[in-house]
Design goal:
single chain; 198 residues; alpha+beta; tt1808, chain A; 5 helices; 14 strands
């Protein structure tokens, strides 16, 4: 999903988390929340949607016999440490899912988060948003997938518990390895139907 400037209807004041959750429950569009501000999220272009669909299908198929669950961008993630509420393109939880107040709406413990980069969100997803995601206890990997060229970045927590391990995939013949969930996917399957592969 793409994040816009603070929604005009919400610029007048700061909102509490309960106010945001009440407004979001009644909204027809998705909004991100951070430190009292509410930001509208717009739709995505075709290539973005194709990549998310491909990845969701491939990961889901490979997790059939594992105690892991994939969630689409309809699942909201909440990070209590910094107040962010957001909707990643794909999130994966291994083990018992934890939700804010057991509400089944606001997931607290993703193991893997995937963002598919749009031109307007590229810098945010790589920079400020990644910093916010790093406050999630138990998050093991953060994956960024480009929509304009074959390029995937997999950031992982290293053995000392710090973020810093990066593996890049830029060859269509590469095999994307999501080590935290034991899944390997051909890069060509992720980009199939996008027009970016022969």
């Amino acid at each position: 999903m793409e994040v816009n400037e603070a929604a005009p209807d919400y610029q007048k004041r700061k909102y509490t988390i309960p106010e945001y959750l009440e407004m979001e429950a009644a909204a027809t569009e998705k909004h991100e929340y951070y430190k009292g501000e509410i930001f509208a999220m717009s739709g995505v272009k075709r290539t973005h949607d194709v990549i998310v669909t491909n990845l969701s299908r491939e990961v889901g198929n490979k997790l059939k016999d594992k105690p892991c669950q994939t969630f689409s961008s309809d699942m909201r993630i909440h990070i209590p440490a910094n107040t962010l509420f957001t909707y990643p393109d794909l999130s994966i939880v291994c083990g018992k899912e934890e939700f804010l107040n057991d509400d089944d709406w606001n997931l607290l413990n993703p193991t893997v988060i995937v963002e598919v980069l749009s031109p307007s969100t590229r810098s945010y997803d790589r920079g400020d948003k990644f910093k916010l995601y790093r406050d999630i206890r138990g998050l093991k990997q953060y994956i960024l997938i480009d929509t304009e060229k074959v390029s995937i970045e997999v950031w992982s927590v290293n053995t000392s518990g710090r973020w810093g391990d990066l593996i890049e995939y830029r060859d269509i013949n590469d095999l994307l390895t999501i080590s935290s969930i034991g899944v390997v996917i051909p890069v060509t399957d992720i980009y199939a139907g996008t027009g970016l592969v022969e």
